[in-house]
TrEMBL record:
Domain of life: Eukaryota
Function: Protects DRG2 from proteolytic degradation.
Coiled-coil stretches: 107-182
Stored SUPFAM superfamilies: UBC-like (SSF54495)
Record keywords: Acetylation, Coiled coil, Phosphoprotein
Annotated spans, Disordered: 211-240
Family: Belongs to the RWDD1/GIR2 family.
Pfam family, one: RWD
GO cellular component term, pick one: cytoplasm
UniProt-recorded name of the protein: RWD domain-containing protein 1
InterPro entries: GIR2-like, RWD_dom, UBQ-conjugating_enzyme/RWD
Domain (RWD): residue spans on this chain: 10-114
């Protein structure tokens, strides 16, 4: 008959000696403890870390212990999911044997892989940003590529704008035509224009005197209008 309690005590002593600085007992009933696992440093000193919490069940190691990631640093959500999946796989493969060291070792290797992936992610992110910068530079240099679709859209908008400008111009011309008066209309609507020139001369100190003797009533003129050869210009020459 398997003495589960004895196996658990022996493993607990071994784990404490292997991980003296990262092993912490949380409770005795049931036995629960944590082990902090840190990856090796990456090329630029980056690391990831996970603190694993294990709890013995009554029939451990014939049944798998309970586990969870108690805390973590620099891990993404997908990394956490991958570690939990890995623990499940390792536990199933090692049922019947004490397995805490095996589980922790598997997680340690996984963390090292994640650090390597971080380097790849950083390089890929760098390449992505470089591609985006190159594309942005190409767009700025080339401008917008003309296609049938965007040309037709521009043409339709341009024609609408021109139609609006023509409509406004026509409206302005119609309004200007309604308010602009002819010279005759100005005299008919503003009687001050009848005497405006004389008033201007008087204001300037110039008095205009008209010698009425220079003019004759048109009725006193002896005009031979019935004579087809009549030339008014010859009248002045005859008097001479």
């Amino acid at each position: 008959m398997t003495d589960y309690a004895e196996e658990q005590r022996n493993e607990l002593e071994a784990i404490e000696s292997i991980y003296p600085d990262s092993f912490t007992v949380l409770s005795d009933e049931p036995t629960s403890f944590t082990i902090t696992v840190t990856s090796d440093a990456g090329e630029h000193g980056e690391t990831v870390e996970a603190t694993l919490k294990f709890t013995y069940v009554e029939k451990y190691p014939d049944e798998a212990p309970l586990w969870e990631i108690h805390s973590q640093e620099n891990l993404e959500d997908q990394d956490v999911e991958d570690i939990l999946t890995l623990l499940q796989q390792q536990a199933e493969e090692n049922l019947g044997m004490v397995m805490i060291f095996t589980l922790v070792t598997a997680v340690q290797e996984k963390l090292n892989e994640i650090v390597d992936l971080m380097k790849n992610r950083q390089e890929e992110e760098k390449r992505r940003k470089e591609r985006e910068a190159e594309e942005a530079e190409k767009v700025a240099f080339q401008g917008t590529v003309v296609t049938i679709e965007n040309f037709l859209a521009w043409k339709a908008e341009f024609e609408l704008d021109m139609a609006e400008l023509r409509r406004k111009k026509q409206k302005e011309e119609e309004q200007a035509g309604k308010t602009k008066l002819t010279g005759k209309q100005l005299f008919e609507t503003d009687h001050n224009l009848d005497t405006s020139d004389i008033q201007f001369l008087e204001d300037a100190g110039n008095n205009v005197e008209v010698d009425e003797s220079l003019f004759q009533d048109i009725e006193d003129l002896d005009l031979d209008e019935d004579d087809p050869d009549f030339d008014p210009l010859e009248m002045g020459s005859d008097e001479d």
